[in-house]
Design brief:
By secondary structure, this protein is an alpha/beta fold. Helix content is 44%, strand content 15%. It has helices at 3-13, 15-33, 36-54, 57-70, 75-86, 90-98, 104-115, 124-140, 162-167, 194-213, 243-255, 278-286, 300-311, 327-335, 368-381; strands at residues 183-184, 234-236, 239-241, 267-272, 290-295, 317-318, 338-341, 354-360, 382-391, 393-396, 401-404, 415-421, 428-434. The termini are far apart. The structure holds S-adenosylmethionine (SAM).
């Protein structure tokens, strides 16, 4: 038996030793800094795990919560807490999650969603990630979300960006022609080497060049990465850029293919699962005549609302509220330039009121029943085009489900404008379907 096999056998016989080893590692780490709070937090983690084993869920939650208060940065704690909550239905988890949240608005979002029909609840996948994201926001604040939560949205780093790096010619030195060389902005992320940080800068600059070459609508020229949220930005061509700007520009150009922009009426765009609102940000910067409805679960809905309302203080914002059926709320929603709705509130939107419905990197993280439900909603609310960009093969181990490009329930009466592999993210496909007769005059008001 080699060393690893011996260790495996040892841990198989004495499973609790594994926890003890991890605990000792955390203690050793903490002792290096002589940080009493960290030690106590690590103890909470260890004892809390004991409670989990005994089946005392509320005892474990109490200890995890205490540990989180003592040391919000204790990563194993976030993961354990998320895993514990993920065992429940979202309805149960939402109660415990509310206890981790200080913002009353976010608490309301969680409580309302828990009361909504189960098909609108986050899948197991997103119950896990919503929990993790809430812990991350609690630990380092909205002010740092681009370093934390955004890594679960559409920002690629280190190994996860490798395929794109190769496609952009990074491995062949395509960055050598960038003059002046791109410079990563701000502090190198913890745990990264300097050369990884430099490579990241080159990757984002190459992505910018690719997005620029496809930017028919001139979106990129109007964009600069905001410092709000502490971005992993890069200085290139005299401005701060990011992956999110590049990808949003490519997606907007693709989604707007076949859209008639000559109408005097604003274009109404709805986005399902918008993350922090990167595409909405680009749309609001690039066009003066768009109205955007974001449909998402917390905490993303809360984050997007904070982000966009802060960056666009003069725009008419329809903030999330539990009830939107009163006449007053409806006319406010109708006039809003940016609106924030929970997923179940899609039912309150009228037929054929949306010109462009879009969603990026969302469906494989829902269950197939949820995807089917969303295709029905899209068929009802969209009078123009539906753009979706998703993994070609998306496996969701949390829910035990799988979505692939061929399995999407595209309606037979929709016309496919295109269905193609994405130019840089070649593990993704993007499809554009004409859902309604087109023509912005055809549909209803909100
Ligand atoms: C991987 S992130 C992608 C975010 C964003 N589209 C982007 O590309 O940056 C998935 C998004 O889907 C949202 N989401 C997950 N489950 C959802 C559900 N059941 N209903 C609505 N949104 C959901 C998440 O909150 C998150 O915003």
């Amino acid at each position: 038996m080699n060393g690893v096999a011996v260790l495996r056998e040892f841990l198989r016989r004495f499973p609790r030793a594994y926890d003890l080893l991890r605990y000792l590692r955390i203690l050793a780490e903490a002792a290096g800094r002589i940080d009493g709070k960290r030690l106590r937090a690590a103890t909470c983690l260890h004892v809390g795990r004991g409670f989990v084993r005994k089946g005392d869920r509320s005892g474990a939650l109490r200890l995890f919560r205490k540990g989180l208060d003592l040391d919000p940065g204790l990563n194993p704690l976030h993961a354990d807490l998320a895993e514990l909550l993920q065992r429940d239905s979202f309805g149960d988890a939402a109660m415990s999650l509310s206890g981790l949240v200080d913002a009353p608005e976010l608490r309301t979002m969680l409580a309302d969603l828990a009361q909504a029909p189960v098909l609108y609840h986050p899948s197991k996948f997103w119950t896990f990630f919503a929990t993790l994201n809430i812990c991350q926001l609690r630990a380092s604040g909205l002010a740092n979300f681009k370093q934390t939560v955004n890594q679960n949205y559409f920002n690629w780093v280190l190994n996860s960006m490798r395929d794109q790096w190769d496609i952009l010619g990074g491995g062949q030195g395509a960055w050598a022609g960038l003059d002046p060389p791109p410079v990563p902005h701000g502090r190198k992320p913890k745990g990264w080497t300097r050369s990884q940080w430099i490579q990241y800068g080159r990757f984002v600059a190459l992505l910018w060049e690719a997005a620029r070459s496809q930017d028919r609508l001139g979106v990129l020229a109007r964009l600069e990465e905001p410092l709000l949220g502490n971005p992993m930005a890069v200085r290139h061509r005299g401005r701060l850029i990011s992956q999110d700007l590049c990808n949003s520009s490519m997606e907007i150009n693709a989604a707007f293919e076949g859209i008639d922009r000559s109408s005097p009426r604003p274009l109404r765009v709805a986005e399902l699962g918008a993350g922090y609102g990167r595409i909405a940000f680009a749309l609001l910067k690039a066009f003066t005549d768009v109205q955007i409805i974001i449909l998402d679960i917390p905490p993303a809905l809360h984050l997007a609302q904070w982000y966009l309302a802060t960056l666009f203080p003069n725009r008419r914002v329809f903030r999330y509220r539990p009830a939107i059926s009163s006449g007053e709320a409806r006319s406010e929603l109708e006039a809003a330039e940016i609106a924030f709705l929970a997923p179940h509130q899609v039912e309150q939107l009228p037929d054929k009121g949306v010109d462009v419905f879009l969603t990026v990197s969302t469906f494989p993280e829902m269950t197939p029943a949820q995807v089917e439900m969303w295709f029905s909603h899209i068929d009802r609310v969209c009078r123009g085009v539906f753009y979706f960009k998703q993994w070609i093969e998306g496996t969701n181990t949390y829910d035990g489900t799988r979505m692939s490009r061929e399995t999407y329930p595209v309606r037979p009466h929709w016309a496919r404008v295109f269905d193609r592999v994405c130019p840089v993210q070649t593990r993704y496909f993007e499809a554009l379907c004409r859902v309604g007769p087109g023509g912005r005059e055809a549909g209803a008001s909100l």
